[in-house]
Amino acid sequence: MFDKLKQLGDLKKMRDQALQIQKQLAQEQIIVEEGDIRVVISGDQRLLEFSVKGHSSDVAIDVLNKAIKQSQELAAKKLQEMSGGLGGLLGGGGQGS
Length: 97
What we know:
By secondary structure, the protein is an alpha+beta fold. It has one domain (2-87). The protein has 3 helices and 4 strands, in the order αββββαα. The chain has a 4-stranded antiparallel beta sheet. The longest helix has 26 residues, at 2-27. 2% of the residues are buried.
């Protein structure tokens, strides 16, 4: 019984650490500029800016963020299947939008 409680405590600690890392990543920004294209993305993979020749489109940014989120959800699902459900306990796919 104590072993199971310790495992749950360890899982909570790992999940808390993962959430803290996720918050830190959200504060980071990666900027890539090539030619007339500029992309700014957060460390947690949310597209913040996308412009071509200085022109941006909020609609394009929304659509790209939806595509990124769907790819993250697919990856989380595959990892969860591989780990026998452990990903769900650790908050797999729990990206805020």
